[in-house]
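Protein modeling request. Please complete all fields; requests missing the sequence field cannot be processed.
Requester role: graduate student
Desired output: 3D structure, token encoding
Chains: 1
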Amino acid sequence: MVMDAETLSPRLPELGSAFRWRRSFPGQSAELRYVRRWLTGVLPAGPAREDVLSVAVELATNAIRHTASGLGGEFTVEVSWRAYPGTVRISVADEGAPHGPRWPEGPCPAGESGMGLYLVCALASRTGESGDAYGRTVWAEVPGNAGPARRTEQ
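Delivered output (154 residues):
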């Protein structure tokens, strides 16, 4: 992690560099705020940070709700930021479940539940998973310059 000496806040990685942050949390819904707080503290401010936070919290939520991690286990969040090609990879490792995530294939469902992976897919350039019923890692890649395009006046 690169720190600005004057403000002690994280800065974007320089071209060609990469950074990785990793932390485990108890599999409880109350921990989601600590995931967000931790990532806010380590990730540099910028257009991608809110997208990364949203994806990380959604993947962590799914680990708690749909895997053995939420039954007294834990989950691990890892964020890797590569300056080139400008990608942030968010991975959440859980303690497994009989079935993997159900990635969206159709229109977004109505209601408040079941929309999380639609959000992940909307923010990510790529998604995937590996593992089985005994442990799985679900990941998403967000463009490092994600966010609304900035328009300059000439």
